[in-house]
TrEMBL record:
Full protein name: Alpha-1,2-mannosyltransferase
Organism: Actinokineospora diospyrosa
Membrane topology type: Multi-pass membrane protein
Keyword Hydrolase included in the entry's annotation: no
Keywords of this entry: Cell membrane, Membrane, Transferase, Transmembrane, Transmembrane helix
Keyword Transmembrane: yes
Taxonomic lineage from the root: Bacteria, Bacillati, Actinomycetota, Actinomycetes, Pseudonocardiales
Amino acid sequence: MRFFLVLCGVVAVVLTCVVLVIATMADPVDLAVYRSGAEIFLGGRELYGGPVNNGLLFTYPPFSAIVFTPLALLSLPVAQVVVVLLNGMLLALIAHRCAGKLWPLVTAAAVLTEAVHTSLNLGQVNLLLLALVLLAPRWGTGVAAGIKLTPVIFVGLLLVQRRFRDALIATCVGAATVALGFAVMPADSVTYWLRGTFADSTRVFAEPGSSHNQSLRGLLLRAGVESPAVWIGLAVVVVAAALVVAAKADHVLGVAVVGMAGATVSPWSWGHHWVWLVPLIAVVVRELAARKWVWLVPVPFLLATPPPVLALVNPLVGTPVITGGPLHFLLGNAYVLVFLATLLTVALSHPALAAQARSGEHAVGGR
């Protein structure tokens, strides 16, 4: 058995290295946007006035342009190699924190998902945000929320876990990132925070019902449900249930559940926003190794997340192979369904916790 685990570990490491090498040859679209945003900041030009690179807009808070400044000091090819290596190290660090000795298996499984695979290829910042929240929740949550808004949901996790001092520190750190933005980039900060740019999801993609939108809102719009009230109401229920579950869960499961909840209720979520699958995969591996077979429930949905599988319904180029039916719904909404399957698994494995979640949902609905 030990030999088998060592062999699997070696194969996993080799597979991960191959994926990282391939990522250095991909088109780092998002990295180019980050680098251009940093160049605009250093040049004192307007950050949100129009496209910054290849027709794409800068959608992150002003603080992020400051964080991305080192990228502007490197050529794009050099920056790509550096970011791929950093993302690879972050992924291994995250997997080790979540899975211990099984980290090579978790890392290899993670790089096969579209969420991680695309984050590596595009030069995305998602793995950094996950690492900050997972490894340094006190201050890392505030920094992550300053770089990108969605991690602010983890302040809620700290509150329900009764870590009030940590929640206060995270909030203060997040507020400090906003203040720094106003101090260094006042005009851009006014545009972003006071003129509603931060809430304009059309800057990410014009059509919210697109198959690229892997969120609850996207799912509802594709199903023909256009009422904002329905979306907001369900989003509140989702967040309430996730926070109740996370309040009693261990740190790894709590981060996975709350991170997936944030991606679920966001107005727009690309597939690469779902890097919260990494701690979930670690939990699934851990629980199955302990023969808790109920954790097989999320596995079919996780198996739907590799790029070749998702391309059956949502290819980057060409015509989809599957254009309708239950399988189209499953693959077209795989990430949201992974999250719902995880909540169901927790309900099946911890009935008392599930009852608390239902009570939390009812309480929210009654206010």
